[in-house]
Design brief:
There is one protein chain. A two-stranded antiparallel ribbon has the order 1-2. A hairpin with a 2-residue loop joins strand 1 and strand 2. The model has no long low-confidence stretch (mean pLDDT about 85). Helix 1 packs antiparallel against helix 2 and helix 3 packs antiparallel against helix 4. The protein has about 80 residues and is mostly helical. The radius of gyration is 12 Å and the shape is globular. The chain contains 4 helices and 2 strands, in the order H-E-E-H-H-H.
């Protein structure tokens, strides 16, 4: 499960990096590349937390918060990270 979260995050990062223009279409609405990347880092961070890789988890979560400071899940997870 946790490896799948990491993989999903990495796939989302690749998708955000390769999409063209300021936004990408997802589920019928525009989603900014910045938000896609933040969510990708958040997913990866959760996966790394589950895998007990605290250093990488914190790095991923910090990147998520830097990209989108109001991403509550990432902020909360970062505060819970050891």
């Amino acid at each position: 499960l946790f490896r799948n979260l990491v993989q999903s995050g990495q796939n989302e990062l690749k998708q955000a990096a390769t999409s063209t223009g300021p936004s990408s279409r997802r589920a019928g609405r525009a989603v900014s590349q910045r938000l896609l990347a933040a969510n990708a880092h958040y997913l990866a961070g959760l996966g790394y937390m589950g895998l007990k890789d605290e250093v990488t988890a914190k790095a991923e979560l910090k990147q998520a918060v830097e990209l989108t400071p109001d991403l509550l899940g990432a902020k909360t997870a970062l505060n819970w990270a050891p």
